Amino acid sequence: MSLTIIHLFLLLSPLRKQRIYVQCFSLTMSGNKEEEDPRINGIKTKIRVVTCSVSKIAGIMFQDITTVLLDPKAFKDTIDLFVERYRDNNISVVAGIEARGFLFGPPIALAIGAKFVPLPKPKKLPGETIFEEYELEYGNDRLEMHVGAVEAGDRALVVDDLIATGGTLCAAINLLERVGAEVVECACVIELPELQGRQRLKGKPLCMLVEYR
Amino acid sequence: MFAVENGLQGDPRLQAISDAIRVIPHFPKTGIMFQDITTLLLDPVAFKHVVDIFVDRYKHMNISLVAGVEARGFIFGPPIALAIGAKFVPLRKPGKLPGRVISEEYELEYGNDRLEMSVEAVKSHERALVIDDLVATGGTLSASIKLLERAGAEVVECACVVGLPKFKGHCKLKGKPLYVLVEPSQLDEVTF
Question: Which residues form the Phosphoribosyltransferase domain (chain B) (predicted)?
């Protein structure tokens, strides 16, 4: 009887992992209690929440990840968690959204042997580019990508520090898909779930470490 | 000082790094041969060479802080910081960093710009490395050095992937040594 239950958990766990997308590290194989990876709390305690005019979304506190970077262990744990998830996933491209996606994307790319592709605002990239517009609260902005950086058939991961409305991530997904890449997942350190950004990812899964409500 | 002047002459990794950098003529304006490191980032082996060479140099220098200049310094700085167990401090354009910041102006060809750093990021007497993708005039690196020194850190060295030939020998920026991997690539090297 107990053997059957164990087999049931083992069989169901991969499916549960696919459905439990809120925190991609919240499950272990140990059974019915969600156990968060212990490194996550260490990362969360390092994120500084500030009220300031830098925030582009009125009424939202600013989740400052630069304080995570000041703690070598917390920073390393952040990268390790993503690397452990993606290293056997045949990811050939890690795309990072400027500028804070540049902090997390390259270490992940290096560790998993993937190319790193920066996705900056307009006029930063020197070569031929394609662009994708996305909406801001007032007006639009654009993300750009170098022509030729990503090829058809590339399996891509999109990285940013935080997902809020999902607009920039959606633009990134569009850029990658337009050149024939397959976006496997989006990875963010922080999610603001009340802004429902994960609904705007064209059905792509989101992996995040910490949520703020 | 260039890597070839300091023990790495003939190291094939330097040639691989140089070959991976694309030259874009007349960007952002006529006459400038822009050194595009995004092609280096598309070559995981060459990108790793960059990080490995810097890590080998700095891992025993008791560096506790790596400061990277926005935005391309954000690409090279964190992997180095992670490998040597140092913190990473972003040096950003105005208005991007939350909390209390200090700022330093530097000259552009026309006009000025500013770099900012969080005041809480640096402890007194920390040993710091400043990293950027390229050094040309040295204006941004000099501003970076000033920011860190104002916060009480000791800047041990500035490190760049690409540097103009004038930085050979014992050239210093604000009295600080400079370490550069390669000279600018030439236009006939085709990548992508």
Answer: 46-170
- The per-residue pLDDT for range A97-133, each reduced to its tens digit, is 999 999 999 999 999 999 999 999 999 999 999 999 9
The angle that helices A72-86 and A101-112 make with each other, rounded to 10 degrees, is 50
Residue range B2-92+103-182 forms a domain whose CATH class is alpha beta
Contact partners, residue A4, CB within 8 Å, separation at least 6 = none
Nearest Cα to Cα of residue B83 among A118, A107, A150: A107
Q: Which two tokens stand for residue A69?
A: 């970077």
Residue among A69, A106, A113 minimizing CB distance to B75: A106
Q: Which residue ranges make up each domain of chain B?
A: 2-92+103-182
To which residue do tokens 């790596």 refer? B66
Task: Provide the 8-state DSSP code for A199.
Answer: G
Say how far apart CA A15 and CA B82 lie, in whole Å: 34
**Chain B CA closest to residue A76:** B82
Residue from B13, B22, B57, B72 carrying the catalytic annotation? B72
Q: pTM to 2 decimals? A: 0.90
Percent of chain A residues past pLDDT 70, beyond the cut: 80
